[in-house]
């Protein structure tokens, strides 16, 4: 769930209000059940704002509708887990979600019958360069990570046959009004499964289903009971004429907007009506298409992977894991270099401060530590003391400015090379994850159509005792 700026409040006030709620001592055993990363419980709001400020300084970007953080809840079956174990699981979940690139706070609440975690993630990374991307896949990824952690700890991961709580994306898909555009996409998807031998045959199937076709520079279709014509190219990239022709020519694998496995009850009923109309009077050949459709869909998945030069789903997952590991290694190397460069800057400033204030500090010492002299030269004296502390921490073995500058320049070059490698890797990893996502869409679309409402995947309990997946949006 996104944390936005509240009306009449500053960014700090908005994030502080959420942090204060989740870290409430009455809910977290006096604050014992609070874990943090890259920040402290007492100053988390201020540290989140520092990361935000550094991002704005580095990028020059500001946003009107800014997301300043993300709030995730993770709940467990009553009487099945200790607060301490829940707290540790929440920490691992946050770590895997963010790759430890973003600060976060994990608070375990024990004031309800069931134990549950609240996780708040800073929207800006530790280096002030990037924003956390809460993309469509995030809810699903979060649920998979959470379920995996629960299984590792022998905890329940249960289904919710009432479908009262699902991921936000699925909830929105199930609850929103079923539009004529949705219906038209469903008709096209169903007609494509009947394997028409060309575009004209596809259009004939749409007419059989009750659609009206208007041809011109762009083909427009009025769905049954629709009030107006809808252009194909407004339905999405999988539904324009060019994509449909490629699909019919077996040069492209069609990815449905909504797979059948995600249909709600009313959509399943509509699908039954559409199938009945398309089957009517078409003979035995059309009657058996559903029986072989699953086999054809599985073949489509193989073709889909081949289109992306991947021989199997296992190879796809291996490539994703390999690139993910490379990404983590590069990010870790970048953090290490960045931290060392910050330390070099601190040491260089120390050398400058020591040299600049040495004479004033000598005079202060010769004045027998005069209070009046201190008040007149407070800043220089404190700067010198701070510089002395840095020298002491290094046992007086401070490198020279020349040595520090040479090391800094070398690290900067290495950091730029690492960043270039990371920038090159990132789109490839994104593409592979997109391939896997589309593969999963096809897999859900190839599920047998039982004409029953599909039970969603595993969910955890929410704060009201219902099963819950996540609230990452």
Explained architecture:
The protein is an alpha+beta fold and 473 residues long. It folds into three domains: 2-166 and 464-468, BirA Bifunctional Protein, domain 2; 180-287, no CATH class; 314-445. It is built from 15 helices and ten strands. A five-stranded antiparallel beta sheet has the order 1-3-5-4-2. The protein has a three-stranded antiparallel beta sheet with strand order 6-7-8, covered by helices on one side. The longest helix has 54 residues, at 313-366. It is elongated.
Gist of the model:
The chain is an alpha+beta fold and 473 residues long.
Compressed to H and E, one letter per element, the order equals EHEHEHEEHHHHEEEHHHHHHHHEE
Shape: elongated
- Quickly count the domains: 3
Overall CATH architecture of the largest domain: 2-Layer Sandwich
**How many helices does DSSP assign?**
15
Report the sheet with the most strands, covering strand number, pairing sense and barrel closure: 5 strands, antiparallel
Low-confidence stretches: 159-176, 448-473
Termini Cα gap: 3 Å
How are the strands of the largest sheet arranged? Answer: 1-3-5-4-2
